[in-house]
Amino acid sequence: MAKRVKLILVGGFLGAGKTTLLARAAERLSLRGLRVGLVTNDQAANLVDTQLLARTGQEVREVSGACFCCAFNKLLYICDQLILQHAPDVILAEPVGSCTDLSATVLQPLKKFCADRFELAPYSVLVDPLRLAENLQGAPDAELDGAVGYIYRKQIQEADLVVVNKTDLLGTGRRDEVMGELSREFGDPPVVCVSAQDGSGVDEWLDHLWATGPGGQHILQVDYDTYAAGEAELGWLNAAIQLQAGPEYPWEAFLKDLMARMQAGLTGAGGQIAHLKVLLTGGGTSLQANLTASRAEPVLRGQAGRGGAARLVINARVRMAPEVLRQIVEECLQASAGQTVQVSVVGIASFKPGRPEPVHRFTAIIDQPPK
Ligand SMILES: Nc1nc2c(ncn2[C@@H]2O[C@H](COP(=O)(O)OP(=O)(O)OP(=O)(O)O)[C@@H](O)[C@H]2O)c(=O)[nH]1
Ligand SMILES: [Mg+2]
Known about the structure:
By secondary structure, the protein is an alpha/beta fold. It folds into 2 domains: 5-230, P-loop containing nucleotide triphosphate hydrolases (Rossmann fold), CATH 3.40.50.300; 235-351, Alpha-Beta Plaits. Helices cover 37% and strands 27% of the residues. Strands 1, 2, 3, 4, 5, 6, 7 and 8 form an 8-stranded parallel sheet that branches. Strands 12-11-10-13-9-14 form a 6-stranded antiparallel sheet, with helices on both faces. The chain is globular. Magnesium ion is lined by residues 18-19, 49, 94.
């Protein structure tokens, strides 16, 4: 039998740090001498994540147009292409951050139909510890409640392994509190703690994925009406924009101004920001800006050059009507550009994710045969 590829799916809510962890894992696995392939996923094209992961130097493919469960055959096709063209030992894949029920709709079908090709790692679900308590408690100022909160909980419940990320931001006391919240709410699931950003815990997490498995040990009852209602509360916008300015124009200041305008505009209109991510590239440099909550500060990483041409990719996931989201983003863009920057929109899509219609849905756990 041909060698099986280790397939690692990393889920979790929007902004939990999946892409950052995949990039870090790709780096660590390459150091172990393993060839890595990466797969991103979204409802539409023009993904910040695909571009960010391409910077790891590894092969990246995109499943866009639908989530993994609704585009299961496309996921298989893309993985097969990766295997044929690149021969990876490991494929790391990131499902859309508003998706759940992946165990029933993706993991079990993978074990059933592709046992010869893939060895499925435990399904890791990332948690942003700074958001956990407010999202679970449905506090009055919680970013996620109702149907979106339902998705959030289901994601954690179906994990084989809960990965508490961003531990670089936690003191020991807060870390203990997070563990307490997880154990109270989810009955002591296996948990590992990492920081995708500084790399701590990442090797231990990877070791765990090689020591245990296969993934998909829990199948949940999921009410698809509530799930669909939760996804439909989110406005989605993906845009690719070409910019042109004079020779010394400071692109970093432009991006900071744009993020501040979008944050004020979106929250001012009553939107709740789940994840607003923007990547500005040009002249061999790239600068990313992320905002993972309405009241947070945007985080900038990388660097931007000065002047000339630049390309902007905007991916916004905001709890508001998509038409309003698009109007605000377009107005902010024009305001930041003023008379100094020429803006041409290469592509823009804004919509609500459609009702999830999985290709497969298994109700029993498939035991993957041993190697
Ligand atoms: N401090 C800190 N920030 C992190 C860590 N991991 C991710 N982040 C930041 O969290 C934000 C979101 O990270 P992403 O990796 O884009 O999150 P994601 O889960 O892929 O988001 P979606 O693709 O929108 O679902 C970015 O600003 C990251 O830099 C971490 O370990 N520590
Ligand atoms: Mg991502």
